[in-house]
Amino acid sequence: MSISMEHMNKIFTYGTLFRQGLIVTVLLSAFTVIIGFFIAMFLAFMLLSKNRLLRLVAGAYVQFVRCTPMLVQVFLVYYAVFGFISLPKFQFLGFIQFERFFPAVVALSLNSGGYMSDVIRGGIEGVDIGQTEAARSLGMPGWMTMKEIVLPQAVKNILPAVANEFVTIIKESSVCYTIGVQDIMFNVKAVQSASFIIVEPLLVATCLYFCLCFPTSKIIGYFERRMRESDKR
Amino acid sequence: MEKIIEVKGLKKHYNKGKIRALDGIDIDVYRKDVMVVIGPSGSGKSTFLRSLNLLEIPSEGQIIFEGTDITAQKVDLNLHRQKMGMVFQHFNLFPHKTILENLTIAPIKVKKIDPGLAEEKAKALLDRVGLLDRVGAYPAQLSGGQKQRVAIVRALCMEPEVMLFDEPTSALDPEMVGEVLDVMRSLARGGMTMVTVTHEMGFAREVGSRVIFMDGGRIVEQGTPDEIFNHPKSDRLKDFLSKVL
Ligand SMILES: Nc1ncnc2c1ncn2[C@@H]1O[C@H](COP(=O)(O)OP(=O)(O)OP(=O)(O)O)[C@@H](O)[C@H]1O
Ligand SMILES: [Mg+2]
Q: pTM of the predicted model, to two decimals?
């Protein structure tokens, strides 16, 4: 099958669908990274806790996330969890179905949180223990030491990985078309079946994903370099 | 003389008792003491010092600070730590904060002192160690000697009753040792109670009011600098001195 100009022109009449898909993918990824970050912080503190049970539970969760396919996790959340909990059915922004979008955000966040928690734990542990000792010796309580001294320094170790996770999620969110979230991939399928054109919609999707991910990772690279420079000070 | 810290039967074990970092320490620190702790590497000097403000949790024994047993379960440790300044071998300044912020964060956030007053006080102390012009700098912009002087001032800003030093000059280039010892000397002259772990025997001899010699997690000998350096009794101390002097 060859790529023809005629096909391309036909595809562009479905521009609205691709635009909507793009918005869904961006929103899905943004919500996921933000909510996933909070889940990850929570898990990281569990992983760092003195309580063995908490460490065990968090550790098991991280392994579960890592060792099962994303697709399975998405299905589990959508069919198992939200099979029991019924969500209100409504649309927002005119074309996003909440009852599909929300489970997708939950599933992706749970996944992303698991991956990021280990990065955050590592980032916190990477801060010199002497920093904590100095703060505690000044009479700072543990939580204040964490907030004022350790976390601000850990951010440097954590931020690049969190930003990379954003790129990963933009790409991996494409599995959510399987539960009917109308993201880029979903609309590729829609255009394919409406127009009987297979390849060109995929090319548009490729282009869209690339245009989302490439600048994002460039921006991350820029900030990483700038941070390293402030270290040399 | 008034006792400020009493150490009673202090033990610290690692690896389920296989390593005895401290093996029964009993000592009192009096107000205005300048106690210098010496001894070979691994003798437990750091562990002893760090036990005084409970950075190390003792396996056994008590630390009584100004009449309160701070090893007891329900004491507010943070309250007592405010009164025990600590200076580390590797400075441990907060790299993401300016010198001024390093000095004022604890007074402002822990002691709830008015920020204006805290800054004023910090600047006055910084001036005394000759670093007022670096008030807006970051730690990475300072030399080792300057960092350690700032670290001492950071502890002083909390107005501690006692200052603990763990080898404060060991990480410094030789030419910077003097400037830090000068600050410590003037602190001692000013009547600060100090416990100092150091390999600077000159400092111990000149400034110390009492010298403690540790080996194998115990205090082997203690006395005035003259007694310890000029009239050592135990073989272990004689042996140690022959190596370091
Ligand atoms: N966290 C730890 N786990 C196991 N053993 C430890 C730990 N900390 C210290 N030790 C051991 O306790 C002993 C005393 O250590 P400490 O650091 O107090 O010695 P030191 O006199 O300060 O030595 P140095 O002059 O080298 O600083 C050493 O044998 C050391 O190996
Ligand atoms: Mg030591």
A: 0.87
Chain A to chain B, count of Cβ pairs less than 8 Å apart? Answer: 62
Which atom from ligand 1 is nearest to the alpha carbon of B12? 12
- Interchain CB distance below 8 Å, B109 and A148: yes
Question: What residue segments make up the domains of chain A, in order of their start?
Answer: 23-184
For residue A137, the chain B residues in CB contact (below 8 A) are 53, 55, 81, 84-86, 155
Interval A170-218: pLDDT, tens = 999 999 999 999 999 999 999 999 999 989 999 999 999 999 999 988 8
Nearest CA to ligand 1 atom 13: B21
What is the residue-wise DSSP string for chain B? Answer: --EEEEEEEEEEEETTTTEEEEEEEEEEEETT-EEEEE--TTSSHHHHHHHHTTSS--SEEEEEETTEETTSTTS-HHHHHTTEEEE-TT----TTS-HHHHHHHHHHHTS---HHHHHHHHHHHHHHTT-GGGTTS-GGGS-HHHHHHHHHHHHHTT--SEEEEESTTTTS-HHHHHHHHHHHHHHHHTT-EEEEE-S-HHHHHHH-SEEEEEETTEEEEEE-HIIIIIS--SHHHHHHHHHH-
The answer on pLDDT for B94 being more than 50 is yes
The confidence score (pLDDT) of residue A226 equals 79
Residues from chain B contacting residue A141 (CB–CB below 8 Å): 78
Q: What is the ipTM of this complex?
A: 0.94
Distance from CA of B143 to the nearest CA of A (A): 13
Considering the segment(s) A23-184 as one domain, its CATH architecture is Orthogonal Bundle (1.10)
